[in-house]
Write a structure and sequence with these properties.
There is one protein chain. The protein has 10 helices and 11 strands. It is elongated, with a radius of gyration of 25 Å. By secondary structure, it is α/β, with parallel strands linked by helices. It comes from Streptomyces coffeae. InterPro entries: LysR_HTH_N (IPR000847), LysR_subst-bd (IPR005119), WH-like_DNA-bd_sf (IPR036388), WH_DNA-bd_sf (IPR036390). Keywords: DNA-binding, Transcription, Transcription regulation. This is LysR family transcriptional regulator.
């Protein structure tokens, strides 16, 4: 029968590179480490390490087993942390992830409502890849996520994404830009401009911009990368370039820039909540309900007459 200490020994040998090193960090004797490793290898019927005078290196079977062992140990650590916290506070902790713009506007009212109901919430802010990794490792119960409409997030079927709202993407121009006087600006009028874009090539907003520009027969020229919308606004105001920014990321725009919709096509990113399908934390449902209320309020505030549905780019 497999035991947690077998996995602890496997992980320690892999990290330390030797049985002696594993014995040292685990505070076992070396014969004890050897015994647990032999038990584990007997269970699987294959050697897990190549051993030599230089130490121990994982075999192919060992490399296949190690991530599962680490996942088991991490889940046990999280279970201990959650249950001990529940015993100490009398309530379970809801672990929530968020990306910055949602963390600033969409999430706080919902969390405040849960706090008033006695629910303990911990928050982790990060970019999308960090949040998805936290969900897959079960370090997060749920997370606010975003994607280009029509895209699928890189999450297995264990998760469901509940849509909240479509966040329109708006053009940000210097106040003295030749197109600043327009109520809406066609992308074709910006084909000669430089663009301030996100720091990673997978950014859904940038991919949607590139797709939309391609429909007009040109490719946006990137002149700067940043994920800080305050920095972005400053360099747009300085005339370095123009940008496409989600509505939730605009905050209070500077006086020396203008914000305009794109003429002829409404582009947006989809914001949703990714939740483990089998979660038993009841407060996850409470938070989802509060987020839906806040999303409906934001959507109503930003919905104007004649607003066309957002364009969905092909994947």
């Amino acid at each position: 029968m497999l035991e947690l200490r077998h996995f602890q020994v496997l992980r320690a040998i892999a990290r330390e590179g030797s049985l002696a090193g594993a014995a040292r960090v685990l505070r076992y004797t070396q014969p004890t480490v050897t015994y647990h490793l032999a038990t584990l290898e007997s269970h699987f019927g294959a050697p897990l390490f190549h051993r030599s005078s230089r130490g121990a290196a994982l075999t192919e079977v060992g490399e296949a087993l190690l991530p599962h062992a680490e996942a088991v140990l991490e889940r046990v650590r999280l279970a201990e942390q959650e249950v001990r916290g529940m015993v100490r506070r009398g309530t379970a902790t809801l672990r929530v992830g968020t990306f910055p713009t949602a963390g600033a506007l969409l999430l706080p009212p919902a969390v405040r409502s849960l706090h008033r109901q006695g629910v303990h919430v911990t928050l982790r802010e990060g970019e999308l890849p960090t949040l998805l990794a936290g969900l897959r490792s079960r370090e997060l119960h749920l997370a606010l996520v975003f994607s280009q409409p029509g895209d699928r997030l890189d999450l297995e079927e264990d998760f469901i994404v509940h849509p909240l709202l479509e966040d329109p993407l708006m053009l940000v121009l210097p106040a003295d830009h030749p197109q600043a006087h327009r109520e809406s600006v066609p992308l074709t009028a910006l084909r000669e401009d430089g663009w301030i874009m996100g720091t990673t090539d997978w950014d859904p907003c940038d991919r949607l911009l590139s797709w939309a520009c391609a429909q007009e027969g040109f490719e946006p020229v990137r002149v700067m990368r940043t994920d800080d919308y305050g920095v972005l606004q400053g360099f747009v105001a300085a005339g370095l370039g123009v940008a496409l920014v989600p509505g939730l990321g605009l905050g209070s725009p500077r006086d020396d820039i203008v914000v305009r919709p794109i003429d002829g096509r409404a582009l947006a990113r989809q914001i949703g909540v990714a939740v483990l399908r089998t979660t038993t934390v009841g407060s996850a449902g409470q938070l989802l309900a509060e987020l839906r209320k806040e999303a409906a309020r934001i959507q109503a505030e930003h919905r104007g007459p004649g607003l066309t549905p957002p364009v969905v780019a092909p994947r």
